[in-house]
Amino acid sequence: MTFIHDDFLLSNDSARRLYHENAAGQPIYDYHCHLPPEDLAYNRTFNNLAEIWLQGDHYKWRAMRANGIDESLITGDADPYEKFLVWAQTVPYTLRNPLYHWTHLELKRYFGIDVLLNADTAKEIWDESAKQLKQMPVSTILDKFNVALICTTDDPADDLTHHAKITSDGIFSDTAVYPAFRPDRLCAIDDRQGFYPYVDRLANQCGIVCNSLDTLLEVIRKRHAHFRDHGCRLSDHGLTHFPAPFFGDMKTLQDSSNLIFERRVEGRAVSHKSRDDFLAFMMLYLGQLDAEYDWTQQLHMGAARNNNPAALRELGPDTGFDSIGDYPQGKGLSWYMGTLSGLGKLPKTILYNLNPADNYLFAAMAGNFQGGTPGKVQHGSGWWFLDQEEAIRWQLNALSNIGLLSRFVGMLTDSRSFMSYPRHEYFRRVLCDMLGSDMTSGRLPNDFQMVGQLVENICFNNAKAYFGMELKGKHA
């Protein structure tokens, strides 16, 4: 039997039936990823596995560093095959790391390759995949994996020309592609060199001179509208944590934030408390804007970024030197959501925790703000360091025990690579194995119609109903 076989990760008959009959055929609703819109707009064809598999993949970069590979062969300008070869040499050392599963699942699903990747098999796998990739533009990949929807992650300053091209050219007949609004830089008032030049650039796009908080809010509203015009219905925020609760009314917080903004425009320093107050106000404003237009806000919380100063100076951010953070999450998150709820302006919200210690905290917090929309506040799927089998089970168990698994909107790719679609299959196999085990042990009824419908809903139907974005072709 090959390593990746039909019943991979499925440990009982009920799990196998649930997966093959209810999960495997469901479309992919990829509501959060980091795929480059340019690659989608120009229907990119990749030349080799180094291009499609290794560029920008900090999961693999971290593994290669841990294996002692020189940085020039990881993020440097070495020959593409040399980079692939050192990855092939690293793969046998990734046993029990999810990279070992993902690597062979992807080779099987994209290229039909059953051979285990190592230094001896690297050349034949490189040659065979390169031959197939010539016939595998992005559109073919999306069709192959039955991708119904993609939401990229885009800065408010993006003019969205690539998204406009995707729409006007009708590149994908069965896959809807939309931007998502990622306004992190608008909250980073402590970025002394970068904040105001960024705001000024945004304002110039809107034909506005931005010299006050009021004009900044006008700029944000216009950029929000620009994204809405391109089909956007989600925002996304990367936060370590919400600051300690602000004790005062909204007008006091806005007045304080106005003075803080003026201080930054003048080039003056901003204190830690001022930074926290400004972040609190901006997140409240952005949340109300999302609620006004029935968007969903996603809160990705808990990452400790740029831990290696020397690597940051040499390679820049997002190169594999981030980790799980240990931040107090409860009070600030409760204040933020409670304030929006009290204003009647809490949008649909997905809470993603990066520290597994916060699973039950986030699942319980979601339950405090439900109502009106099924599953209005979601405990989001395992993210980043937690998107592997063990942590997927942790998140599913916390959600099941405290909330309604039946309303869960399921997995996302959260990837920069077009090779990552089997991550959805991986999640679905884990989900079905959990549910099938519960059926086998008597913890769930032996009712395949009921449990099978649950599987289908989590894989696709719930997300389709929850986000409400227009689908295309056979998925419409």
What does this structure look like?
This protein is an alpha/beta fold and 476 residues long. The protein folds into two domains: 354 residues, TIM Barrel (Alpha-Beta Barrel); 92 residues, uronate isomerase, domain 2, chain A (Orthogonal Bundle). The protein has a four-stranded parallel β-sheet, covered by helices on one side. Helix 1 packs across helix 20 and helix 18 packs across helix 19. The protein is globular, with a radius of gyration of 23 Å.
| Assembly category | single chain
Biggest pleated-sheet summary: 4 strands, parallel
* Range of strand content: 5-15%
Total domains: 2
Number of helices: 20
Short descriptors:
alpha/beta; TIM Barrel; uronate isomerase, domain 2, chain A; four-stranded parallel β-sheet; three-stranded parallel β-sheet; 50% helix
Report a brief summary of the structure.
The chain has 20 helices and 9 strands. By secondary structure, the protein is of the alpha/beta class.
Task: Describe the secondary structure blueprint for this structure.
Blueprint: H1 13-23, E1 28-30, H2 37-41, H3 49-54, H4 58-66, H5 80-90, H6 98-111, H7 122-133, H8 138-144, E2 147-151, H9 161-169, E3 176-178, H10 184-187, H11 195-206, H12 213-229, E4 234-239, H13 250-265, H14 272-292, E5 296-301, E6 303-304, H15 309-315, E7 323-324, H16 330-342, E8 348-353, H17 359-367, E9 377-379, H18 389-402, H19 422-441, H20 448-467
Parallel strand pairs: 1-2, 2-3, 4-5, 5-8, 8-9
Antiparallel strand pairs: 6-7
Helix pairs in contact: 1-19, 1-20, 11-12, 13-14, 17-18, 18-19
